[in-house]
């Protein structure tokens, strides 16, 4: 189904949209920084990393290889430093994974581009859907065991403090779902499958809950900004996939 407004945003209005979206993101993140942090050096560093992340995700949604994967490498490297310096060594795993996928993506995408130099997305077969579903199910099943093993070495990805969302949903499992889905979505994106944006939409919703529960409002703002971009990315990739 074609939507004229989205055709314009991903077509003749693309540059205007990118500039407006980016500026709104910068303003929102800056407001979150000033109102919800202590303005420490680490806070300022993460704000800078967040700005790089904005460039990364909007470039990925518009299928720009060097900008998307290149800035993705910078953003994820920055996130690794943030987690390491804040003592959350377990949380370094996701950005480390994403960093190496961007390294792979910058070479892989360059081999699958259209005449304009933009990456050509591809549809997922039933087999790919089944493999993805199996990966998610296995990941969810194994994660607690792996997490406990990492915890024994001081690298737990998610701490289980018995807190509940809405009084009955385990905060631990919300984190687990967010982690597994984000790893899956990232892999699907780098492999050029357009359905990755459906996963990112779910991931952003889950991460919004996580960030609100943990009081991490600047991350929550970032998640909402990313969610808008995810819908644009979904439409752009599907439109390009169909030709």
From TrEMBL:
- Give the way it sits in the membrane: Multi-pass membrane protein
Keywords of the record: Cell membrane, Membrane, Transmembrane, Transmembrane helix, Transport
The cellular component terms of Gene Ontology attached to this UniProt record, alphabetical and capped at eight, are: plasma membrane
Example of a GO MF term:
nicotinamide riboside transmembrane transporter activity
Q: What is its main location?
A: membrane
Q: Does the keyword Cell membrane apply?
A: yes
The UniProt record lists the keyword Transport: yes
Q: Name the Pfam families on file.
A: NMN_transporter
Protein name (record)? Nicotinamide riboside transporter PnuC
